[in-house]
Amino acid sequence: MSASAAPLPSETTAPSGPTRASERALAPDLARGAMLLLIALANCTFYLWASPRGGISLHPVSDQLLDQITQFLIITTVDMRTYPMFAFLFGYGVWQMYRRQAEAGVPESAARRLLRRRNWWLIAFGFAHALLLWVGDVLGAYGLAGLVMVALFLRRADRTLITWASIMLGFLVTGALLAVVGAVFVAGLQAPEGEVFSTAAFMAAPFATESYPMSMLMRIAFWPFLVLGQGLLGLVVPMMILIAFWAARRGVLERPGDHLPLLRRTVIIGLTVGWLGGLPEALAQLGVLPIPDHVGWVFQAVHPVTGLFAGVAYVALFGLLAHRLSGTPAVTGLPVRALQAVGQRSMSAYLAQSLICAPVLCAWGLGVGAHLGSFTMALFAIGVWLITVLACLLLARHRRRGPAEVLIRRLAYGKR
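RESULT FIELD:
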């Protein structure tokens, strides 16, 4: 066991309450605030339920220049890059919560019970989110991953965390290489007759039905597979949580000035691998790279591997930004305060996106998604994010937490 994972005190101290706004580090909140914009852009693709889709990517087929530019940018910089970033920040927050309990003298068992309660409630929130609004909910997956990773790795030595993260990365890279070899072989075979199966088209079904009860059944039937697949079997989320535990023990985001070489290397390597790794799928989607639709599944194995590098790089980028802003007038400026306000209320902002988008865009609602393309949908997503920014700024002005944060903290911590 490493020095950073020393045992907690054994006295019977009640769990420490939630972190006050004045105690929060700048970098994680900036990253969470920006992440919500990326999530809005990544999710808006699924609301294009009436657009024809091929088998290459999650995006519809379009011959419009603005749509193609939008798809190129989102595929290379956003798709499969947001949920690794989300997973890292989630894991970082878990360790911050645990460390807060340790500093308050809370015993090990009580701190773990607090984390378990919070993760179980995240799963419950995710279930409600999927049932009512959004088929691609991530709260349940993160809650499940949190339960498992906290139980297995929270107090393990740093070397153990890095070893297991490396093993997971090895599995992901091996799977991606095998997928590429398989795709090369399958590409030479005759394409199957009929429409090629598309994950995006399958997930778009709940948006395309005009029956809201039927859409609920479709979403909740898919949700358990997403929770298990994304939360554990996909390995990206567990791996990011392990790396986040390691980084949080060192205060990488609380004290970015002490870790500038690490943050700079992470940004350079992560963005290079992440963006270049998304380039083949983007070119294939636009028809520049001649990849047959019936082997488009290869990108579903390759894209997450390169995406995790970009996700960590985005977090490191905001660590560098927080260091640059520290002690300058810009730290109190509107852009920083806006991102900070959203980051402090990230769960409320995340759920608010679905609350706005689903009734407006789905066929069971107003059906506006049938009349938009990739470019106009991206503008819509940016507009939705700006609405949540304004709402969070108003809450911050009145020193109020987000409603989802208030509820889950009340459920996790109790009346305290």
